[in-house]
Amino acid sequence: MLRAENLAVRRGPCTVLSGITLQLQPGQVLGVLGPNGAGKSTLLGALSGELEAAQGEVYLDQQRLAQWSGSERARRLAVLPQSSTLSFGFLVEEVVAMGRLPHASGAARDMEIIGQALAAADAAHLAGRSYLALSGGERQRVHLARVLAQLWPGVEGQTLLLDEPTSMLDPLHQHTTLQATRTFAEGGAAVMVILHDLNLAARYCDQLLLLDRGQACLLGSPAEVLQAGPLRDVFGLEVLIQQHPERGHPLVIAR
Amino acid sequence: MNLVVKPRPLLIALGVLLLCAFSLSLALGPVSLSLADTAKALLNLLGFPVAGAEQAQLIIEQIRMPRSLLGAAVGCVLALCGVAMQGLFRNPLADPGLVGVSSGAALGAAVAIVGGAMLGGIPAAISPYLLSVCAFAGGLLVTAMVYRLGRRDGVTHVGTMLLAGIALTALAGAAIGLFTYLADDATLRTLTFWNLGSLNGASYPRLWPLLVVTLGVGLWLPRRASALNALLLGESEARHLGIEVERVKRELVLCTALGVGAAVAAAGMIGFIGLVVPHLVRLLAGPDHRLLLPASALAGASLLLFADLLARLVLAPAELPIGIVTALIGAPFFLYLLLRGRA
């Protein structure tokens, strides 16, 4: 389980994130919202140990994140970056297999997991193809399968951090990807996902964190966070909030 | 683009290729030996006395065996270091020279050759050793500086290292130019030929250090094959997969400095092998380092032995510098594969 206490991050002289106290809940998906430059990716970087905290501390299972050994941590915490720079022609399943590096579960079990993770990311049909021959959205799904395989099947105590996993996906796959993330979380893993689409966030997240200029503006259920006032203050966007006619979650409509 | 060959057949084929290259390299030369004589001489050398090939044994033991071993080791270690650098820089076009080891070694050699001549000549008995030691030290020194310049706050920035490598290579080039300017005609010729590379004059005392380094690099790098694979995803991705990225980067730079430094010290500048062999193998076998490393080691050794055969035979009894041959046969082949891969 991942927990941040009074976290602050500085880049040069600027404080880009401050006063973040947060605990990711097992089995739940936390969505992080905010305008460009609000500190969403910085938060993810600090939670994953990639960025050094100027203040405060990140704990993974009661132990400071920095104290974990590399592979021990990798078995509990997986991170999907916004974009990847792989420029070598690995096969799709070889890319996903890298997610199994921290484990010593044996080739047979790994193969099984790779297949399941690919299927979960709706990328099973890409197996056997060269990564370089894929489109941007397909690559993004392959990397999702890779981080899913890293934690597969996803149990309590594990954490998955996703940085805009839907940024390059078509509308259908935006939904299938987030649905897969939800399903994965139901196994007990805690998930944090950075999103830009407010309606996707409303539909698939249990909790939402609204970031504004490096500070936590609101943390709560989608119904609590997605309200006209805060959205206007943070995004400068005039919106109407309705209820989804079938599902009941809030629906954000720009005026 | 992936012409995936199964690992085991590929390694067996490359192993057979290396055996052929090595045998031919022992048998052919200004004095051609029959394969039977070569085999007899080899058996004698291995301690199984067989009569009737005394001349062959002398030639092989004194001249061709050290030369073939030198060729195989240089090709092997250059190819391995090429794989390491392409993995470190996450770029299939990276070359071992990027971290400055080649230019540093060239500067060390220039210092030894020209400086030695200016001091009134180094005794012939120690001058080859002095040259090797200076080249090796120069390579290590410049690489250490590049590595140091690339580090900030305990993190090695590969991009900064690349730029530092370019800057120091230019600086070393200027220093070499200065030495070239100061050199007299005979020294200039030595320097030029050294820069083109040669397996000529191989001897056991100069061979052992390289063999030890090659063995070390060849045993160490495959232990980092999975880490190299993960590194290709990106440094932070590799870290999230539990790889100790800083340590792996340090090891890769160290292996390259030692490997290329030792190769250049023993055989001069032989370009192209470190850049192209990994690339060729990747076209055949895909980018997985667990296969790429051993396959590149075998292919690099074979390619260099064949190149040396050509260098010896084309203008026999004269000899072409091997650096010319590696570029002449490798570059067109590389272009061919590149164009075919794109089609």
UniProtKB/TrEMBL annotation, chain A:
GO terms for molecular function: ATP binding; ATP hydrolysis activity. SMART domains: AAA (SM00382). Keywords: ATP-binding, Nucleotide-binding, Translocase, Transport. It comes from the Bacteria. The keyword Iron does not apply. It holds the Pfam family ABC_tran. Residues 2-238 form the ABC transporter domain. NCBIfam families: PRK13548.1. Belongs to the ABC transporter superfamily. Part of the ABC transporter complex HmuTUV involved in hemin import. Responsible for energy coupling to the transport system. This is Iron complex transport system ATP-binding protein.
TrEMBL record, chain B:
The chain crosses the membrane at residues 69-89, 101-123, 129-149, 161-183, 252-277, 297-315, 322-339. Its main location: membrane. It is a multi-pass membrane protein. GO terms for biological process: siderophore-iron import into cell. It comes from Pseudomonas segetis. Keywords: Cell membrane, Membrane, Transmembrane, Transmembrane helix, Transport. SUPFAM superfamilies: ABC transporter involved in vitamin B12 uptake, BtuC. It comes from the Bacteria. InterPro entries: ABC_BtuC-like, ABC_transptr_permease_BtuC. One of its GO terms (cellular component) is plasma membrane. This is Iron complex transport system permease protein. Belongs to the binding-protein-dependent transport system permease family. FecCD subfamily. GO terms for molecular function: transmembrane transporter activity. It is found in: Cell membrane. It holds the Pfam family FecCD.
